[in-house]
Structures are given as structure tokens and as C-alpha cells.
Amino acid sequence: MLKRYLLAACTAFMLLGTAAAQSTEPVDLDMVSRIRQEAFHHSQVMQTLGELTEGIGPRLTNSPAMDKANAWARGKFEGWGLANVHDEAFEDFGRGWEFSQASVEMLAPRALPLFALPKAWTPGTDGPVEGEAIAVAFKTKADLEKYAGKLRGRIVFLDELRAYKPGTEADFQRHDEASLEDLQEFAVPADRRDDRARRIKEYRERQDLAQAVRRFLVEQGALAAISISDRDNGIVRATGGGSRKAGEAVGVPELGMIAEHYNQVMRALEEGQSVRLRLQADSRFTTAEDRAGYNTLAEIPGSGPRANEVVMLGAHMDSWHTATGAADNGAGVAVMMEAMRILKAVGARPRRTIRVALWSGEEQGLVGSGDYVAQHLAAYPQPSDPAQKDLPSFLRENRGALQRKPAYDRFSAYFNLDNGSGRIRGIYAQENLAAMPIFEAWLKPFADVGATVVVSRNTGSTDHISFDRVGLPGFQFVQDRLDYSTNVHHTNLDTYDHVSPEDMKQAAAIVASVVYHAAMREQKLPRKALPAQ
Amino acid sequence: MLKRYLLAACTAFMLLGTAAAQSTEPVDLDMVSRIRQEAFHHSQVMQTLGELTEGIGPRLTNSPAMDKANAWARGKFEGWGLANVHDEAFEDFGRGWEFSQASVEMLAPRALPLFALPKAWTPGTDGPVEGEAIAVAFKTKADLEKYAGKLRGRIVFLDELRAYKPGTEADFQRHDEASLEDLQEFAVPADRRDDRARRIKEYRERQDLAQAVRRFLVEQGALAAISISDRDNGIVRATGGGSRKAGEAVGVPELGMIAEHYNQVMRALEEGQSVRLRLQADSRFTTAEDRAGYNTLAEIPGSGPRANEVVMLGAHMDSWHTATGAADNGAGVAVMMEAMRILKAVGARPRRTIRVALWSGEEQGLVGSGDYVAQHLAAYPQPSDPAQKDLPSFLRENRGALQRKPAYDRFSAYFNLDNGSGRIRGIYAQENLAAMPIFEAWLKPFADVGATVVVSRNTGSTDHISFDRVGLPGFQFVQDRLDYSTNVHHTNLDTYDHVSPEDMKQAAAIVASVVYHAAMREQKLPRKALPAQ
């Protein structure tokens, strides 16, 4: 195995060396050195993360805590002397929601505390409620009528029992040379034209069933609903339920329960036992009407002829509500904020304007960044077909010509961080092959802290896609996974303790250096061809 | 690596082959076959485990649920036609205790539900209480006075913050040939005479400090105390606190909190923030006075001249209280019960009497099995020195001659299962070298289900030690670890879902066959020399 690692390492270094030599991309090693000194030896990144995650707490989009986070971020940016610090609204996102406490307790056949947490945008219980558990199987709308008249005063268990899946790999993983090498492979995409139609159909059926279930549970007088966490080992993964949109059915109070307890209730029900529960969810909508959400932005202004060109960096500040959103994505926010602080601290005077954005609404479909791009950079025409209009942006077919704003041509690139708190091991070039030798040159001074790969492949599911979708260079870094997907992603364990300070310092240095070089470079970053329309 | 596995496998098989050939130990393959058929194809072991763990729940020694478990086990044994089904008391164990629900909630500086569960034998709160958190450092009794006058109405955080330790190995592990081979090595013991004196001193200091802290917290009017779970990833490990003995100080309500939440409170306190908590623990002592604990026993009587000789098998039925005691040790209980059921089902007519014991008080120091051995088999004289008398049995020096009961000479061997729910991979011979070829012969028909090793080394920490200590053959099987030490041991995750049905069936077959062969063999099992006195 050792031999393979060595070979892979050699190949990686050879590639870097060759590409950099070919590109003659300039790197300001004096500035890199100053950035590293500030990032590694005078870091504030964990202080920033602590204030955001433990001072403010979870930051569900449009919650009061998210408003606090916007105000706090503006304060930090102003304190560091950034310019043009402000929030920007994206309209009609939905209602605010928050929760403070929840408890579920089995009263019969025997006393047992059960661990569950509320789903966002579901109502609270207004004090404790008590009722018998009932298991249902709502696979299609036709299933609902089987339960008519059976749910009044009951607590409804929505999912099937799920067997424990032993954890046969370590929770915590870092890339090794072999896994980094694997990332170099690009999978030629399968034809997905038919796939889109199928996905739209499935999406509509799912939405339709979910709404019918919410209405049915309310009509039938169910007290609450419980679903099973999709993690084992006592981890709660409970994201959104109900509806965030004013006027839509929010259903009954719904909680996600750990598998170990959910299964126990289900086995008792299968044996025909009467399972009595007491349940309380101190959850509440904080606005009756839909309201705007807010991104927070700030700049280090450029100077000279390229001052009206822009390099952006960003991360989403909104989080799910069951923990403090530390890895997803307090970490990304703290690193991007720290990168701006470092650039100010080292006295960077960029040619292009460097603009940082802390997005909201990411968890609900890149809403904040998508709206920003549409307002400032470019957008496809809104579909006139109401059925298309209802679809989330990732399912819509973009029909018509892209409508570009003046800033579109002055935009260089956007850099994002949102794959947990693991250190940067490289960057996804998002099929922008012309950008690869540039990135290779920029990352070379960080090979000694583990950032070694530039890969052609795409990565998705976060805010750089809002830029990529309209043909603008938008990138997400390759990061060490740590325990992101195993323990913390969207779970009650996404807390400060699971974040590694050394990784955060490393990431802040690299981001600061990359955006600095993007702001200083002779040309804007090259663009790839627009996606087929 | 493959080569090493193959070599190890070959060595293991050669050892087995040679030893078995030398011993000419008879194996009744027809009976083994019948036992396997019943164990693998007509198993009731998971039904038994379900009734015990989910029907009855956690079984803290002397709790009402432990009484239910004793009664349930008697009913199962009687239903299977076992003889001499009865409970045996061990005196003055302590008080009963149970809890039904607990909650902790941060009210300020912001709302946050905190996850914690009560320690056994600590009092409840009699409804919710509210107070400010305070961190203390009680390293010695001298530290207490620093906090005089500062704890009234406060919730006391007893431990230091502990950094997250990434899980770099898989939670779930099975033995491979390499790890089984490692078990073949015997570590020649270091001289521990001085060590005992040090351990006694440390034990006394710990006990003394704990009692002083309990008294101090009550005197000072603290509302409750919180300690940190010694597991990461949201797992609560909260065993005993307070005192089970009537007349001793039980202290204030004490709970164990997940590290992710404990650390968060500690960081807020370190920053000088005022942290206000609401806490409720619905815990209660179920007896005012010390009461007896109970082991449950049953037999398949022998017949013929060896009928008054005994082979025993057992496992402890008591558990900790935060989960349902499935791996520790519902699994051992269900397997031992199933082994007895299988022997009845296949019509076994043993020469020696086969006696099963389901112990209580194991978690508090092998109390039930220790008392049983002292009453029926042998004991060292009770120390006259009151200081020695106060020590738990594992720290006492046995002075004076072992006092043997008549049954001592008629006792063959005791077999125990208590290392989680993992399948049997072999047996610890506990330095009884003469027993090794016998075990090798008995395990050979189970090599195809993974039971391949007989190792000379000792293993401790469970009830076979009560027999071993008085020179009687007492054995614990080598088991696959699964997620015993990582997730479930003494934690809130020790539930039915973490138990593998296939492993349970395998173990029941092997135990049934081993005890059957022990009961049928010409001679009792050989004994090793008595431990030095």
C-alpha cells in the first residue's frame, strides 16, 4: 500500500509542478507569508465561531436568532473596518420559527424517557399532551382513508421500524493520497433528460402527499406525529416539516426521534400493546406572515481601473435548529469572515473589490444566494407556466435567454466553503479547465498544510451553484470530511466541540490567499461555456 | 496481510487438531447436531431478550423492575419445565431506586435544551427547579471550603470541560485472525503487592471525597449537580451516584450530561456569562431501608451417581438504568436462558445437574454471585479488621484458610457470558491449562460459526470471578466486541437494536453444548491451583 501512496503523491506533485510551470501564474509569496502568519499565529477564527454558534445558537432562516446573526456579523465586519457593510433582503421566503425545549415520555406500558426534537415549521403543543401511539403507513394519498376516524387524540408514528446498521468505518475520516487521487477522476455524465421528468414527477408526488398528510392529521384530530431519525446511535436528525409559507397547512406538531426509541415503540405496537405517551414541544412561529430573509455583505474595495470588478467569497449563515450549526455552516462563515479579517490585518490593497456574503436560506434550496445572483448578476426568465414556477430552482428547466446585468461582465469568481469544518485539501474546478492551472499555482504554497489537489469534477448542494448555474465561475473547496456525514450533518451533534481549530486556521489562510490572488490577477478568472439551455 | 491471516488460521487449526487428538476428549456430535438445529432453526433467544429488555426495561439492582425480572425469569423457567426454580436472597445490598423522566433546559443566556440523565441512587427534584450554573473544582476535601456560601440555589458543574476525541476506528468491530492470535499471548503478571496498598489508598480517598462532596452540596443548599458523560457523540454514560445504603448521604440530584452540552455550559461560565438552567429529575428511592437483592436459579437435574455434582452457567440480569440493559447484560441472560431451553427441547438427560443463575448486583461489584458462592461453595473468613471489612471484595486481602462447603468438591465448573452481545469466538481458560484441550475439543464443532480459540489468559470484571477467586473453575467466553465498548456499555444506547440475532443464536448453541459436555464428562473439570493467600 505504501508504494501506491508514494506513486500517487509523486503524480500529484508532478501534475502541480507541470501545470504551474506552463501557466506562469504569478503568486505573491510575500503576501502568502503575511497571510499565513496572521492566520496561523494570530487567529480569531474560533472566537468568531464561538460567538456565532454558542453566543447566538442555531440560526434557522428567518428565525429571531438568524436576525441576531445578521446584526452580529455586521458588527464584526464594521469592527474590522470593512466597507459597504449591509444586509440584502430576499423576499417572501416564509415565516420565522423557533423552539426552546421538547420532551417525549412513555407512560405505559412502562415509564421510559424518549429522545426526540421538533421539526422546523411545525407547531408547538401549548403544554404537555397525552395520547396513545398509533403506527400508520402513508405511502400514497389513497392510504389516508384507511385511518379515517382512528387518529383523534393519538400520537402518530409515521415511519417503518429501521434496523440498526453497524458502523464499520471510522466516524472521523481525513483524505489520504488514495482518496485524493480518486477525486481526479471525472465521471462523464449520463443523459438525464428523462430523469428530470421523473424527478419532477416524484417531487410533485412527495409534496402532494406531504401536504395531504398534514391536512389529514389536523382534520382527524391527531395530537402529534413522530418520524424516525435517519441516523443511528442516538443521533437526532430532524430538519424541516410542516410548511414555512403563510397560508399553507403546517400540520400537527412533528418530532424526529432517535431510532433506538422509535423502534422500541414500534415493536410494542406490533405486539398489540397500548403505548401511552406524554409529549411537549415548545415550538412557535415567530411571524404570522411571510417575511423577507437577509444576507449580510461587506467589502474590501478595490482600487485602480479594476475596482469595479468583483471577487466574492461566501458561506451560508443559516442552519438547522437542533444544534448550533457549527460544522454546517458556522465553520464556513467563521472561515470566510476570518479571511476578510486577515486581508485587512495584513493591509491588503486589492485591485478588484473583494466582497464577502453570508447567505441565508441555503438549507431551503440556496434561496439567499440564488436571489442575490438574480438581483445583481444574471437570471433566466421566470417561467410563465405556473407548474414550472412552483418548482424549486434545481428542478426548473431554464427556458429563454439568460438576462445579464451590467455587473455580470465585471464579475470574476465566487468561492464557497460548506462541506463541514475539515481543512482544505484542494478545490473543485467545476469543469472549468482553464481555471485549473491557476488554482494549482495558488495552492502550491499550501501543499505543506495539505492542500494539494485541483480536480475537474463538479460538486453541488451549496451556494456556488447559484453562480455556476448562470455561467459565472463559482467554486467550492475540497475539504477533509472529519465526522461531517457520520455524526454532525443536520443533526443534534453539530456543535462547536466537533470543529477542529487547526483545520479552521488552515482554511482561513488558504481562502484569504486565493481571493487575494483572484483580486490581483491581470485578468478575471476564465469562464466555462454556459450550461446547455 | 493475507498471508499472515492464513498462517494464523493454519496455526489455530493445527493447535486445535493436535490438542484434541492428544486429549481424546469425547464429543457427542449427535447431541451437538441436535443442539445446533434447535438453536439455529427454532430460536427463541430474541423473543426472550425482547421480553426482558423492552417488556420489563432497565433492571437496576433492587429496583421494582429487577423484582419483575426475577418473577418473569422464574415464569419462563417453569414454562420450560426446569426444576428447582427459585430466587435466592443476598442480604443488605441497599435501597431500591428508579427514575421515569429527566429534563434540563438552558433559560439564559439563550434557550437551549440540554440532554442529561440521572445517576442512580441520587434523589429526584420533586418538580422543576431553576438556578444559576456554577463550575467547581473539587480535587481534594480542602477544595470544598473555597465554595462555602457560594452554592445555595445553584446547579453545580462538577467536571472540567473535555475536548472531543475523534473516532478514528470503526464503532463496530469483529475479531479477525490477527486479533484472535493476539489473545493467545499471556502477559506474565507484574508484582502488584505495593500496587494493592496504593489502590486501597486511592479507593479510600475517592470514597471519602465523594461522601464529603455529597454532604457539602446538601449543607450548602445546592439544587443539583451535573457531571460530564465520558463518551462523545451525544452518548450519556451515567451510572451510580449518591449512595444505595440507607443512612448514608445521597447528596443532591445528580445527572450525567452529554459532552457537547456540558462543554457549552462550561465555556459560557468561563466567559463569565450567567447561565440559568431549569432542571427536573423524576427519580425516587423505592425503599427507605436496605433490602435484600435476589438471584434467580433453576436446574435440569442430573441422574445417576453424579447427579449431586453441578455444572453452572449464568449471567447477570441487573443492569444500569439509562437504557434497557440489552448488551449488558440482557444478551447474556437471554443466551443462558436459551441454552437451558435448548437442552430441555432436545431432551438432554445430563449426568450432572445443570444449574443456571441469573445474578443481581453484578454492576455494584459481583455482589449476587459473590454471595451465592460464599453461601454455597466456599469463602474466605470475613476480615476482623473493620478497615478491611469496608473494602469491596476486589480490594480485600484474603487472610486465613478458605472455608469450603460440602458442595465445593461436587462442583465442576461455571460458565459466564457478559462481554456484550457479540458471538462467541472462543473461551478464556483463566490459566487453567489442563482445561484447555478439553475446551478445544468441545469448541471444534463450532469452528464453522467462528468459535476457534482457547486462550490461557484471564479475563475479569464479571461473575465468573466469584468462582475463580475461591479456586473453582469459572470461565467467560471470548466474544466479538461489536459496538460494546464504543457505544453501548453502560450508556443510554444499550438497547435491543444494537444486538445481533445471529450472534445470539450462535452463542446459545455453544453454551448449551459446552455445559452439556461438562455435565456428561467422566470427570469434573480440572482445577488450577488456588490463588496465593
Give your account of this protein's structure:
The structure is a homodimer of 533-residue chains. Chain A folds into 2 domains: 46-55 and 290-364 and 392-520, Aminopeptidase (3-Layer(aba) Sandwich); 97-285, Glucose Oxidase, domain 1, CATH 3.50.30. In chain A, 35% of the residues lie in helices and 20% in strands. Chain A has 15 helices and 18 strands. In chain A, 52% of the residues are buried. At the A-B interface, helix 3, strand 2 and helix 7 of A face helix 3, strand 2 and helix 7 of B.
How would you describe this structure in keywords?
Glucose Oxidase, domain 1, 8-stranded mixed sheet, 35% helix, 15 helices, Aminopeptidase, Peptidase_M28 (chains A, B), alpha/beta, zinc (chains A, B), globular, glycoprotein (chains A, B), homodimer, 533 residues
Summarize this structure briefly:
The first copy, chain A, is of the alpha/beta class and 533 residues long. Chain A contains 15 helices and 18 strands. The model of chain A is unreliable at 1-21 (pLDDT under 50).
Strand order of the largest sheet of chain A: 1-10-12-11-15-18-16-17
What is the CATH architecture descriptor of the largest domain in chain A?
3-Layer(aba) Sandwich
Work out the oligomeric state of the chains in this entry.
homodimer
Task: Please identify the structural class of chain A as seen in this structure.
Answer: alpha/beta
Q: Determine the mean pLDDT of chain A.
A: 93
Globally, the shape of chain A reads globular
Task: Tell me the CATH superfamily of the largest domain in chain A.
Answer: Zn peptidases
CATH topology assignment of the largest domain in chain A: Aminopeptidase
The profile of the biggest β sheet of chain A is:
8 strands, mixed
- Terminal residue distance of chain A: 46 Å
Bin the strand percentage of chain A: 15-25%
| Low-confidence blocks of residues of chain A | 1-21
Number of strands of chain A: 18
InterPro entries (chains A, B): CPQ, Peptidase_M28
GO molecular function (chains A, B): carboxypeptidase activity; metal ion binding; metallodipeptidase activity
Protein name (chains A, B): Carboxypeptidase Q
Pfam families (chains A, B): Peptidase_M28
